[in-house]
Amino acid sequence: MVTELAPNRPRPELRPHWRRRLVAGFIVTVLGVQIGFALNGYRDPHKFFAFQPFNESSTWRADIVRVTWDGQRVPIDAAWAGYDWDELVGMAALRRPQRMRHAYMGVGATVDFLDDALDWVATHTPNDHETRYLEATVVSLENTHGPTTTVLRSVERTVAPDES
Amino acid sequence: MSATIEVETSGVEQRSPWDAVLDWTGSVRAVAVLRIAIGPITLLHLRPFLRDAVDGVSYDDHFWEPFIAWLPHLPGRLWFAMLWIGAAAAVLMTIGLWTRVATATTFVVVAANLLLSQTHFRHNRAFLMLVLGAIALLPAGRVLSIDAWWRRRRGLPVATDVVALWPVWLLRVQVCLVYLASGMSKLVDPDWFGGLVLWDRVVRYQHVLEPTPLPGWAVDLLTERWLYYAVGPAAVFTELFIGVCLWLSSRRLVAVWIAIVFHVLIEVSASVEVFSLVAIAALAIWVTPTTRDRTVLVGGDDTMSRAVMALVRATDWFGRFRIVRAAPSEPVISVIDRDGTVSTGGTAVGLLLSRLPLTFAVAAPVRVLASRHRRHGRAAATG
What we know:
Largest sheet of chain B: 4 strands, mixed
Oligomer: heterodimer
Mean pLDDT of chain B: 91
Distance between the termini of chain B: 53 Å
Largest sheet of chain A: 5 strands, antiparallel
Helix content of chain A: 25-40%
Shape of chain A: elongated
Number of helices of chain A: 3
Structural class of chain A: alpha+beta
Distance between the termini of chain A: 78 Å
Number of strands of chain B: 6
Low-confidence stretches of chain B: 1-11
């Protein structure tokens, strides 16, 4: 690689020894972390920093209901104290869950995000005094194999039922 | 005699592979070109977040999930400010004003935004972050920047563009790891290697293909399952080929060309945000980091030579050629290669165009085919 330097170019000053060691340590650390992430991608459904894009052509849909304090199961597209599922979750991957749709992040990551989103929604809807918890019944096909059904449940809400 | 040899060899310093990496120096010009390209790409990346900021929608107004739960929660207003600072820094990075600080700021903003929430994670964003990180480690404003221009204007000594290039080496390894990690994960997945994933995806998006100018038979062909028994492995081996062959100097140009075609095909067929743009721009790091090591001699009449020289100067972004005005009686274009070989006519034009970034994708394969054709012709004549 050194031969790629043009012969008549000024050469930058050599770095002190400690700085060379620091750079070498930095390079080893960065590459070690990146290889670690790449290997972790084989078990992590999100494959964070593992560079495994387009890894699946999976599909999923979910029936999400609010289970009220009196035991009713109310679909999320019914009236809900002014809340809207798509606005609450924001991310495109979780919107319109009722339709069978492409899990572009992979079905594992989608289900994991949906699980976390149920908890987030359950704890960020203070005007909702009816719901005890949210429940999602997810049907997924992983690369056309399946279907697999998974039931997810949010944390139990602490918002007191509306006494009025 | 043996004693003399001993004395001589003891004076030779043993160099480890690490020394080769740490001592690698060269021109930062290709990285400066990358820096200029990455600024607008960063703006494109930040655009959806900035749109939310304009609408007053913060990342925590809807579902988000921190990577690290104990980190302090970034207030929405601070997030808005961070995004605008990132956008401004990306512009400064591209024009090369306060380049080092601007590049580091752009990197910090893109990284902080990515690491703010798991819902912000995308592979293309992580790739952009890696590229920005490497550029930030280099004095990429030494050339092709307002900083460099301003320095010259003030009569200060010109800062050399020859610098330690270990960050480029690091980025080269990282880029290859991206191709290899992606290729390996698909290689070990029977659904991917057997073409099922690609075929199912094309069938699922057949409704997108149908209104395109593609004839009906082509759409039918593209949705045939058997085709993907070949396309699946081809896609996997393409990624692995790029990841390995970018390191082999004898195969590098082929790997770069295949990478360009590969990323254009991905861009056409999938929604990958800024991935294709970053990946194609990042190919600049494989340019040999020397400048003006080839010479273009421009002959012909005055008007013609001026036009050719201006054109070469404007399109030679990597500074590969020293441009010299030759006598009017000389050929319009002659090229002296690194090894001193002089070419004229079509060969010279082919070499020139195959080393200019805008014409590389077309000129490089044409040049290879023409050279093979000439070799076959010579072999037939002598045979």
